[in-house]
Amino acid sequence: MAYGSVKCCLQCATCSLVAGCLCRALKFLSQKDSRVKEEARLWPRGKTLRLEIPGAKGFTVTASHQGFQKLPQDTPGDVTIRFKSPADAFRVFTGQLSVAQAYAQHRFTLRGNMGLAMPFVRCVDIAEGYLFPAFLAKRILKRPARKEVSTALVYLAVLFGGIVPCLPTMSSSSPQSSCRATAPWSTSPTS
After folding, report:
1. How many independent structural domains does the chain possess?
2. Contact at 8 Å (CB) between 53 and 91?
3. Burial classification of residue 164, based on how many CB atoms lie within 10 Å of its CB (0-12 exposed, 13-18 middle, 19 or more buried)
4. What is the pTM of this model?
5. What is the rounded CA–CA span in Å between residue 70 and residue 129?
6. How much is the pLDDT for 134?
7. 10 CB-near residues (< 8 Å, 6+ apart)
8. 97 in any annotated domain
């Protein structure tokens, strides 16, 4: 398949869209899901992970006390995961292949400290459990993780850039317990 083909262009566009959604979901889940929050908390400060897709937009993230944060696109990564082709990334991002299968089939390369990449991959697996429908998640994940947050909230976070309006979570006892983020359309923080 030539890089200029319509199929390749559609795959690149899909990969760019899904990579953006994944990054937003990780940002949200690193604040709301205890497992992702813990991985982000343990992430060495100042270290970055970069996801590259030929012909498509990837992302670079780091972790802080506030969870995963997206960095500018051109930020170098201490760890870089680079898909070998848009078709390889497309198969992973559309649930045709799991991350583990793609790694085993050498569909991406990993440069840098693998110990930094593994927590990120665990977080991606958890995010996929939220983002993919159950029948697809069961096919690509060994064991889909228990959901600690409503899937609807994760989708809202994806739509609004990792910030959702004040809505209760599945594990909260009071409706106001998850109201720590500012709704993107308001000018004052909620309490």
Report:
1. 1
2. no
3. buried
4. 0.78
5. 21
6. 80
7. none
8. yes
DSSP for residue 146: P
- Give the CATH number, domain containing residue 50: 3.30.1050.10
53 and 15 Cβ atoms separated by less than 8 Å: yes
- Backbone φ, ψ for residue 56 (5° rounding): -135, 165
**Residue 184 located in a structural domain:** no
CA pair distance 172, 180, nearest whole angstrom: 13
The radius of gyration of the chain from alpha carbons, rounded to an integer in Å, stands at 17
- Domain residues for the domain of 69 are 6-148
Q: Is residue 176 part of a domain?
A: no
The torsion defined by the Cα of 150, 155, 158 and 159, in degrees rounded to 10, comes to -130
What the block records as the tokens of 78 is: 């201490």
As a whole number of Å, the end-to-end CA separation of the chain is: 53
42-64 b/e (C-beta count within 10 Å ≥ 16 → b): ebeeeebbbbbbbbbbbbbbbbe
Each residue of 9-58: pLDDT tens digit? Answer: 999 999 999 999 999 999 999 999 999 999 998 888 889 999 999 999 99
**Residues of the chain by 3-state class (helix, strand, coil), percent to 5:** 45, 15, 40
Q: Which two tokens stand for residue 58?
A: 């990837």
The answer to whether position 28 is within a domain reads yes
